[in-house]
From TrEMBL:
Oxidoreductase in keyword set: no
Entry protein name: Phosphatidylinositol-3-phosphatase SAC1
GO annotation, cellular component aspect: endoplasmic reticulum
GO terms of biological process kind: phosphatidylinositol dephosphorylation
Keyword Transmembrane among UniProt keywords: yes
EC number: 3.1.3.64
Transmembrane segments: 46-64
Length: 150
């Protein structure tokens, strides 16, 4: 969900009420609930947040807008991110000079090129950041941690 003040990332899991709120001015990230999302927010589906990047014009949020199933590991689905959106925290570019606007355009083009290269994979239920061998040698406490905590 997008408002002029915040981005709201809502979990789509059944029963999930948590919403990640990202302030577009302070860049502060907080956890809130669905009822806090204003009804006026523009809503669109995404499949994940790749991260943020700071360019000349300010901070941008990179989200996954399309995915393709590429396989499974132990019944855990592995997805390939196939399309992305780069959302500006800033509402306007009026604060930039012509040179800064051109530089920002070049950096966005470079970022789009990098995102168009194959190789962005993710799973919502399996840890792709560690090898199977390393996962086998971790403690039970580590295994019980959520993917986010790892």
């Amino acid at each position: 969900h997008i408002t002029p003040e915040k981005f709201y990332v809502e979990a789509c899991d059944d029963g999930a009420d948590d919403v990640l709120a990202i302030d577009r001015v302070s860049t502060e990230v907080t956890l809130t609930v669905k009822k806090d999302v204003p009804p006026s927010a523009v809503t669109r589906p995404i499949f994940g947040v790749l991260g943020t990047i700071r360019l000349v014009a300010g901070t941008y949020l990179i989200v996954i807008t399309k995915k393709k199933k590429v396989g499974e590991i132990f019944s855990h689905v592995i997805w390939k991110a196939t399309d992305f959106d780069i959302l500006s925290y800033k509402k306007t570019m009026l604060h930039l000079t012509d040179i800064q606007l051109q530089d920002n355009k070049v950096f966005l083009s470079m970022l789009n090129h990098v995102l168009s290269v194959d190789g962005f994979y993710f799973s919502t239920t399996y840890d792709l950041t560690h090898t199977l061998q390393r996962l086998a040698n971790t403690s039970p406490e580590f295994q019980e941690m959520s993917l986010l905590e790892r």
